[in-house]
Amino acid sequence: MAEILAVGEALERALTLLQAGDVVAIPTETVYGLAGDATNGIGVARIFEAKGRPRFNPLIAHVADMAMAERIAVFDPLSKKLAQAFWPGPLTLVLPQRPGNGIHPLVTAGLDTIALRMPRGFGGDLIAKLGRPLAAPSANSSGRISATTAQAVAADLGARIKLVVDGGATPVGLESTIVKAEGAGVRLLRPGGIAAAEIEAAISMELLRGGGAGVEAPGMLASHYAPGAAMRLNAGTVGKDEALLGFGGQRAEGWRNAAAFLNLSVSGDLREAASNLFAYMQELDRSGARTIAVETIPFDGLGEAINDRLSRAAAPRDNAQPTT
Ligand code: TXA
Ligand code: MG
Question: What's residue 216's pLDDT?
């Protein structure tokens, strides 16, 4: 079973494991990540093994500073502006790789682009100390809900990894927003912890969305973030054999008879809802209800990413291939 160490006492142990080509679960501001040295093929392969992740699905490389980022990838002016505005923070930029950057090809699944992010807090310190980028997908078994606490990581991956660094509940609670500069514009590949409107304000232009062949993040297949229970979205009523995931002050009809009930944000705050989403889905899942009914969540701000994760969790699972 994995050892759980608090951030204040974990740095040396984490470094030793990473230098030996092993993996470590670490807190970031978005969700917990399962990190390995991005330049070490064995470390990267262990990430895929521990998660049961298909190897065609590339990983995000995490950097400590802009100099490290520019050794790995080539920045266009718009991407640079976004990095300056939001790093360290929950934004991932997809960029052309710089040849000879030392990143193991397994990280990028052979693509000539790479997804880069500069995390806040422990992750940043660890990368700076290691002096090398860390590849880190969310620290969950492929296709399951991302972990927002060290305990959730240990419950899912604890038998397959040696160390979970405990930094408490992750403040944002949703994975990073992923964008890619394309021609004169910037395309949204995955909504996430920074609202699209904030990015649009920083570059004074609207994000490109949808369309475009093969431009989506490869991991964005329909069924994903799946709890054991079925999910039913935009529920106006709830049956007594269902659990209810609520939002705001207006309750679905029959809510008092629900098998279990949690409210993502009583005051209707989408940031609070985002930070509670995955933990509450897991808690309602543990209630044993066969279905989790979810009240309507608005699409503005972080609501876009919340609705994205909910609809993936609700997608039919037969024939679908969950991937990250
Ligand atoms: O907040 C986050 O982003 C967390 C923390 C740990 O940093 N990480 C995370 O990683 O969510 P993961 O592996 O669960 O999701 C990464 C997504 C996948 O959908 C993957 O397909 C996409 O990034 N991706 C990676 N490299 C890409 C590339 N070169 N082009 C397009 N999408 C890429
Ligand atoms: Mg993931």
Answer: 55
**Which of 148, 177, 209 is the last residue in one of the domains?**
209
Please work out whether the CB of residue 108 comes within 6 Å of at least one atom of ligand 1: yes
Task: Please work out whether the CB of residue 136 comes within 6 Å of at least one atom of ligand 1.
Answer: yes
Confidence of residue 213 (pLDDT cuts 50, 70, 90): very low
Span 91-103, pLDDT tens digits: 999 999 999 999 9
pLDDT digits (tens, 9 = 90+) for 69-92: 999 999 999 999 999 999 999 999
- The rounded distance, in Å, linking the Cα atoms of 324 and 311 is 16
Instruction: Tell me if 197 is assigned to some domain.
Output: yes
Alpha-carbon torsion angle 165, 91, 277, 54, nearest 10: -70
Domain of 32? 3-209
Atom of ligand 1 nearest to the CA of 136: 6
Q: Is residue 76 part of a domain?
A: yes
285 belongs to a structural domain: yes
**Shortest CA distance to 144 belongs to which of 292, 316, 305, 313?**
313
75: CA distance to ligand 1 center in Å?
A: 18
Is residue 274 within 6 Å of ligand 1 at its C-beta? Answer: no
Ligand at minimal distance from the CA of 117 is 1
Is 217 a domain residue? no
Q: Does one domain contain both 132 and 253?
A: no
